[in-house]
Amino acid sequence: xxxxxxxxxxxxxxxxxxxxxxxxxxxxxxxxxxxxxxxxxxxxxxxxxxxxxxxxxxxxxxxxxxxxxxxxxxxxxxxxxxxxxxxxxxxxxxxxxxxxxxxxxxxxxxxxxxxxxxxxxxxxxxxxxxxxxxxxxxxxxxxxxxxxxxxxxxxxxxxxxxxxxxxxxxxxxxxxxxxxxxxxxxxxxxxxxxxxxxxxxxxxxxxxxxxxxxxxxxxxxxxxxxxxxxxxxxxxxxxxxxxxxxxxxxxxxxxxxxxxxxxxxxxxxxxxxxxxxxxxxxxxxxxxxxxxxxxxxxxxxxxxxxxxxxxxxxxxxxxxxxxxxxxxxxxxxxxxxxxxxxxxxxxxxxxxxxxxxxxxxxxxxxxxxxxxxxxxxxxxxxxxxxxxxxxxxxxxxxxxxxxxxxxxxxxxxxxxxxxxxxxxxxxxxxxxxxxxxxxxxxxxxxxxxxxxxxxxxxxxxxxxxxxxxxxxxxxxxxxxxxxx
Amino acid sequence: xxxxxxxxxxxxxxxxxxxxxxxxxxxxxxxxxxxxxxxxxxxxxxxxxxxxxxxxxxxxxxxxxxxxxxxxxxxxxxxxxxxxxxxxxxxxxxxxxxxxxxxxxxxxxxxxxxxxxxxxxxxxxxxxxxxxxxxxxxxxxxxxxxxxxxxxxxxxxxxxxxxxxxxxxxxxxxxxxxxxxxxxxxxxxxxxxxxxxxxxxxxxxxxxxxxxxxxxxxxxxxxxxxxxxxxxxxxxxxxxxxxxxxxxxxxxxxxxxxxxxxxxxxxxxxxxxxxxxxxxxxxxxxxxxxxxxxxxxxxxxxxxxxxxxxxxxxxxxxxxxxxxxxxxxxxxxxxxxxxxxxxxxxxxxxxxxxxxxxxxxxxxxxxxxxxxxxxxxxxxxxxxxxxxxxxxxxxxxxxxxxxxxxxxxxxxxxxxxxxxxxxxxxxxxxxxxxxxxxxxxxxxxxxxxxxxxxxxxxxxxxxxxxxxxxxxxxxxxxxxxxxx
Lengths: 484, 484
Fold this sequence. Notes:
Chain A is an alpha/beta fold. Helix content of chain A is 29%, strand content 19%. In chain A, the strands form 3 sheets. In chain A, strands 1, 2, 3, 6, 7, 9, 10, 12, 13, 14 and 15 form an 11-stranded mixed beta sheet that branches. Chain A has a two-stranded antiparallel ribbon with strand order 4-5.
């Protein structure tokens, strides 16, 4: 039987940040935490989502609250916290940290939430709840958790609030945002959302795979021409000949790191394995083409190397979460983070949930409903094969917002040693309060992890309404000429 | 007046390595040189090509001699030695070195030659010679220098000999190889040649630019489709509409490092400038498209940052040669390398030669003549925009050798931490003694500089006739079935 943590329940009665959720120290980090951390549960009904809330280092009373959600479905947002953009990044030893100079809490109060129930250290008192999950239920539960958060932290209700997330977060983020949009009782200050390398549209993912592989040199011009001829652009319902050719071409991607074309595939050596990869067979490369046909791949392949188990087949899922898995599993860390004691150890992606993807819509339709209300940023590390920038740029185009011809796939810039550098390409749409798509050049699936300076600059420009292209003052997007 | 170094002339009479060319110490390197280095001049008529010869660390009496030539035309092979694959790589301070664990002299006796006259510390007693250069004269002179080398070092004549080079070396290498092929008096043991990110064919370079930029996310799908429609694949003789669209698309590449799409453009800050960039205007991006139209770009843009001169416009040619320029310019280094004292200081690319590119042929025709005699490897770092892998793979295809369907653009592999990794893609042709093309994934123009482990493995497999795909025993390329 699961015991409810008394602390979380009692905290609901408090008027400010819940003292019982305060993290007094982090095992492995001998210094003071730079700002206050809280860790505990956001509870509603029998469900309890584990969260970590980290106050901003900016000391700006106007600094926003940003929710972050990793994807899967089934993967934990602790990945974002401890590997991507938290203030302390876990080392591979699972015992120590590296301070992150590009932590997102430099700009915002960061809320990391493990969702849905069954993921990470989140749970339900009713075990059936983890076996009956879907996109709509997850969005509903995430909104309930958010309401619980602002009950616990009413002092943050007036701050601008943004939803952000990555990968299958491409579903979590707009679906939650739409729930917020439609819920008249919401009394926090929702302003917009951010999606990184998100899942948008199965059909576009299937279509983008061949051009992506060809564009990066993974298949030959000869093979590309054969495929073009056999497939005639119809990758969603391919002919047998097309399917065969694409599959054979995709074989070239099999050994690659699906999350970054140019990055070696991480393996923890002989201890590397990944639970539900068992079912997949070793032949399946991680490209949009295959994910679109077999959506389980996205969740399954993100599972990281973990201590070997005799029941698990050796495999190379490419992403390192060895240190996080070890650290979060210790008794001391669980106590420090106020984890419900009866829970099994943390996994980066849970193998014990049953999740039905009822995102049978195409995500852009949701965006179209919200684009005149919320500020929206879609970014893509452009060397990711799993949710590639081609499919996502096509998806954003299909929202049918008018492209601003002054910023139609133009370089966006940062100053680095030696002058201005192009860090990616930006497309701005002529909407208010603003819809933008950008690529991050040379980053894979986890942009904040692999291009931290660029990701922080991007977030700064977005949150502070600066010109995404230069970081300067915002350009007016609709010019009005006043005749006197 | 230039004085001839007595040492070189006298050495012609010696029976072995010329003692007077022996490098006794390198300023800035306080340790013993791991193997013997020689530096001096290969002289013929009034011409004197500066060379550095570095014995192999392999102690293998069968180890080959490999000639290396950088491109330009007008750029020095000291770039290859001190920045790419020499045993000691110069640091940016211009005063110290980093030992290179992937030095090519681990496998071969390396001969670095500055060519043609007027480049680096090479010279002619007749100044007119530097003003009347072309591809054919360069190949003729390079062969004369090689003959002088083997006169100086007769003990190396029996070793297998390979010509290798990079960039405009794509012209130097096959033209010299053809001279060797056709010269019946050659008594050294020529076996094959290697070209990295080489210049092959202006037309293919012009055609590859748009697919390369699109393939890496530098232009949008929308723009690509407009270009396809306007250009109809005819980039060599584009319509006005096509030209305009391609130029506008290429603007997106302007700020990028033309030698590596994903690498920041190096600048030495305010001291960075590049001589003959003056003439080019700042608007010209370095892509195959532009190089094909304005071949001077290749030589001009490779010029690296160097100490500021009031006459030189500030610019960012992206490649660092600050340390090498400083170090090679000192009196001590010139003495240590036996440089003709009256010469001006070394520049990575000479602005004082007059070179006519009479490569009006397409390089593949030369390869076709030699492919049944020499082992040939063409490799391309696949993120280089200047000589991109698309154009070069098309050029190698156009040799019209039969592709070996067992290795038709297949991954080639190396073992790294965590298991086998795909390091690029390989195409093998069904010729004897062997023609192969491969890409090096994630490397730019200077493959040995930016992917040293991969480059060394590639050279090892090529020189030692191993399977390029795996590093294992060679696969028979033409299978013969013996019926008994």
